[in-house]
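Handout, page 2. Input:
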Amino acid sequence: MDNRIKEKTKIYKPEITHCPLCGTKLMYRYTVSNKVIQFYDGGSSRVKNLGYSCSNPDCTHPEIIYTSQTASKLCIKGYTYSAKVLATISYYKQKHMSRDEICDKLVEQGIEISDRNIDIIYEKYKEKLEMDYKKNIDVEYNYMMREYGQIMISIDAISIDDGKAKLVSVRNFFTSNQIGLHLFEEKSPNDYDFLDEYLDKKWNITVIATVRRITGFFPEVEKRAKADVKYIHYLKY
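Output:
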């Protein structure tokens, strides 16, 4: 008898069902990612992110592969830990906690990780946190307008350390390119001033947000620009 425990698997499809360019129904192409992810609550599951593209051969971009924004929020490319685990490590490092202290805190959560791996993860993640998001906005927005005739961005917000801090991720919806990543202690609405750069009124922008519930962060998004905000709700993993 095979006594191995069967791995729990969660399969995600793109939250949109029709092509944002021509309106034709999307069709499955291939699995974009398939890996086991450790979550902040100590659990681990296999996450499959399925890629779909437009079924209309006459579409201006039938080659674009659309993936699940929820899956992208849960797991970051190149890592086997959830985005919340990565953000927590970065937050504690910025608070000058030692890697041994961080390792102990994560082990208490049931997360298997070595102290050396904490340093490696932080150094890689730090590059994303320090990227020139203002330059990226200009490059990515002009690219989207040129190639797709519209701007669609994905915005995710994750609470850290019992709500003391927030991680905000902004990506190009079409290509999933990271435009900016922001990690900060949440103290006042002014902490979200960086959103004004993303939601500049000179751009016609659609914001896609995958959420379980509407928190105080998203009203900040709505009031800072006349962006079309589309909420896609999903159940707790």
